[in-house]
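Cross-posted from the bioinformatics board.
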Amino acid sequence: MKLRFEVSGEDFSLAGRASTELKRALGRLGIDPGAVRRAAVAMYEAEINMVIHAGGGVAEAEILPDRVVLVLADRGPGIPNLELAMREGWSTAADRFRELGFGAGMGLPNMKRNADELRVESSPGSGTTVTMTILLGKGAP
Amino acid sequence: MTPTVFHSVRLEEEKCVGCTTCIKHCPTEAIRVRKGRASIIEERCIDCGECIRTCPHGAKKAVSDPLAMLSAFSYKVALPAPSLYSQFPESTSVDRVLSGLVELGFDEVYEVAEAAELVTEATKRLLEEPGRPRPLISSACPAVVKLLQLRFPSLLGQLVPLLPPMEVAARVVKERLHPGKAGVGVFFITPCAGKVTATRSPLGYERSFLDGVIGIKDLYLPLRGALSQAPSRRLARAGARGIGWGRVEGESGAVGERRSISVDGIGNVIGVLEALENGELKDVDFIEALACPGGCVGGPLTVENPYIAKTRLRHREDAAPPAGEGPRAPLDSLAWTEGLRSRLALALDPDMLKALVMMEEMELIAEGLPGLDCGSCGAPTCRALAEDIVRGKASSSDCVFKLRESVRKLARELIALEELQPPGLDREDKAAKS
């Protein structure tokens, strides 16, 4: 079963909707609360990243019996140095987002902590695709 | 036998006209209109009272205990919620309100605000404990606790694991002030339906010490009548900190946690909990969440406008000393004796594989529905109807648009059939027809 969400790069007030919808779907499946929370946090962080850095994109969630696979793809500027981006506290967010309390450099590290598997494919100029797998029945992080 | 869930929210059938107002306002989509009447899906109801508040026909009621119940006890103690004080103008002192309760037949009054001071101190100690999950979420509002069980089970471990003030009050009276005394009956004077339910099916403890719960609404007129005759006794002991629990920001103010969020209104509460579950609230240590607008002063069993009541309560706080006369006879422990479990009432099927198949079907059905969320089918949204269909509780022809579509299709087929007369019988002059 696959859910698909358009993430707007224009309207920040809509950010977080994919995460909320994903949570409702996982709730209908009776999936354990720990896994639901990890999936929600991973989705939310990736969604926010896509809004802040890439002007939006598409978020997909594939729900399988043993895992949830989240794929967030954008056509933004790409990540020039992935190693730095994975470091806690490293951020390239614009000042206008920092003023809103974002850009603490915890996005990717947080995704890594909550997902059981994180894959980032990115090349400057052609966008970024983040793939995260959350195993079900594993509980809280 | 399946266990029945007790709920205090009930429908007065003869008043319900089958409109769709309540189904639209229910935060957990727990109401459907069936056969011209609203019906509550019990497993999903969190007793928030939103339907009582919004029903234009007054058909939703909260069941509380009748005043006549007092006669079954020889020594009757009233436990008024702080919100009761806000139902009367400031010219009527708290002493007078409490004296009025004595006039109505109570032998003693113990303010729930006094118990709230005890819960305040215990909450402060929890907030100082290292290793507690942050932020802690107040468990004072039973509707919020049940909302967590239903929609935010991953946050259950963050609830303040302490008895609510009404229960602490009941235990102080029975165990400390009158231990071993026979015939003692304790009655909570409540602003809300959720607390009625919480006494019958306690959250976090096995059995309630309360003997009855009386709605402010039911007591208001007799109490008003008694106020003028009541000789004013000195009965008010609670301080500002305890009284403030009756309105939003009261509890967090009393606890004194600066890094706190105070949120009121069930929709706003859901918004804050969504943000918390997404990991957004890293700079918050305490969340005071109350289902009713303005807090308990906005409870569905109150009579005064919540905003007027809130201001009045503030003035009562200003007039009282911060910590009152000090709470009497505290209990050894206010801690919960039972953990809270999540309510899996939202899962489509206990078997995840079956649920997955059902959800795929549900998505397909939802795509075929008009998406207008008109409510005419009796479900709050098209998606909710799709869910009811896969659960086998509704059919796609319940949708008026779908039904209209089928009727049109049928009509077209009829017309087409009408054209096809057996050649041997068709005597109509085709030329005359055109």
